[in-house]
Amino acid sequence: MSSKSCAYCRRFSKDIKIIEVPESYADTTKQYIYVCPSCIKEHALENTPEFVPSDLRLFLDSQYKSFTFSLLTNDDGNEYLMLNNNFTTLPPKDLEFIAYELLKTSKLDGLDEYIKTSNKLALMSTSFQNDPEENGKFLLPLDEIGISRKKFNPDKV
Predict the structure, then answer these.
(1) Residues 60 and 25 occupy one common structural domain
(2) Residue 39 burial (CB < 10 Å; 0-12/13-18/19+)?
């Protein structure tokens, strides 16, 4: 593994370990962090399990999730799709990795239904507040949109 920065002291180390995020760590949005041996001792993290991220997770985390597309036209006039990250065009090795992972994902059973559901939830969350009592439900202002509770049909377009 190449040199990585420790999540606690920010020093670079080749002996860095990947561990699950401890409850005491400030940023709990991550699943894993890099920690140097001295910070493991200092913060009593010896019993924290090591985390083994997949190649896909490591790739996405290293890319900062800021992809853009561009068009590449060769001398014959053929057009090709290029993928950029932070204004840098990705090399063929990364493009092949992404294409393989996307192909694998596209073959998942139930993917179409998952996409429809997640897009519907994303659209609803931009327009309505989440219900604090039930996950995945929204508080609809029925008075404001002029619908009585009896006649409201959530499946109707």
Answers:
(1) no
(2) buried
